[in-house]
């Protein structure tokens, strides 16, 4: 028989959705201040650890539709934040990577987001356990 406290708590999905909405609302002004959309930031973060071999590879890694990713990549390239260079091993494929300015911008946005997250995490009684559990469950 389930514990009464266990049956009276909100479902995990409901709690995660409320937290997700709160985090998105917190991040939106930060992204606007830096002049990027959420998807542009996701792309910059997806390329942070090294180049991606092909747009389809990046799209799969970040959970984006590859056809909807093209205008985002075009904009980031036009702004000098990413490069799309031919792959020497296969000239039909483009290697996607951050420029130094793209790396700087991604780091600045992430620092601002992490600072804002700290304010939210102050409300958690055991923030380290929360962040660890969230990381484990989101893999």
TrEMBL record:
Highest taxon in the source lineage: Bacteria
Return the Pfam families for the record: MarR
User: What's the protein name?
Assistant: MarR family winged helix-turn-helix transcriptional regulator
User: Per the database record, which ranges form the HTH marR-type domain?
Assistant: 9-139
**Which InterPro entries does the UniProt record give?**
HTH_MarR-typ, MarR/SlyA-like, WH-like_DNA-bd_sf, WH_DNA-bd_sf
């Amino acid at each position: 028989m389930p514990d009464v406290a266990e049956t009276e708590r909100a479902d995990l999905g409901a709690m995660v959705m409320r937290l997700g909405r709160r985090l998105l609302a917190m991040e939106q002004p930060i992204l606007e201040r830096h002049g990027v959309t959420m998807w542009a930031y996701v792309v910059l973060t997806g390329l942070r650890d090294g180049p991606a071999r092909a747009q389809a590879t990046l799209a799969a890694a970040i959970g984006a539709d590859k056809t909807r990713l093209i205008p985002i990549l075009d904009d980031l390239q036009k702004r000098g934040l990413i490069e799309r260079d031919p792959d020497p091993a296969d000239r039909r494929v483009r290697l996607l990577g951050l420029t130094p300015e793209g790396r700087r911008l991604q780091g600045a946005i992430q620092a601002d987001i992490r600072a804002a997250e700290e304010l939210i995490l102050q409300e958690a009684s055991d923030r380290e356990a929360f962040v660890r559990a969230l990381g484990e469950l989101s893999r």
